Amino acid sequence: MSKGNCQMWSSYAQAALRVVSAYAFMLHGAAKLLHVPHVAGYDNLQLFSLIGLAGVIELVFGGLLLIGLFTRVAAIIMSGEMAVAYFMAHASRGNPLFPFMNGGEAAVLYCFIFLFLAVAGGGACSIDRLRGARW
């Protein structure tokens, strides 16, 4: 396989990572704000709370990431949210160097996936690519 083909396929793999991770992330925001899927712990969620703000970020910026619009900006905000979530909610439950023991594996993975996308961009099949955006 030539180098050009590898670069083309890596751009599509990058786009697939962007879409799948954004969709999974948006489900957290939808559960918090729209109650779909229903999670009983979010029944009395206040919009103007830390968890409410997280839901807005997850839904709005997750949607932008899903379609690949303002990918880098959305991804850096989402990466930051996950870093804060890890250190506030998970690292305090146990050793911060062992996320599998404090329930923070998803937060760490989301944080670094979004950090990668903030640096690398949205890949193929993104609105940013169509409009020729460099940031």
TrEMBL record:
Its main location: membrane. One of its GO terms (cellular component) is plasma membrane. The keyword Aminoacyl-tRNA synthetase does not apply. InterPro entries: DoxX (IPR032808), DoxX-like_oxidoreductase (IPR051907). It is found in: Cell membrane. Keywords: Cell membrane, Membrane, Transmembrane, Transmembrane helix. The chain crosses the membrane at residues 12-35, 47-66, 73-92, 107-127. It comes from the Bacteria. It is a multi-pass membrane protein. Belongs to the DoxX family. This is Putative oxidoreductase. It comes from Paralcaligenes ureilyticus.
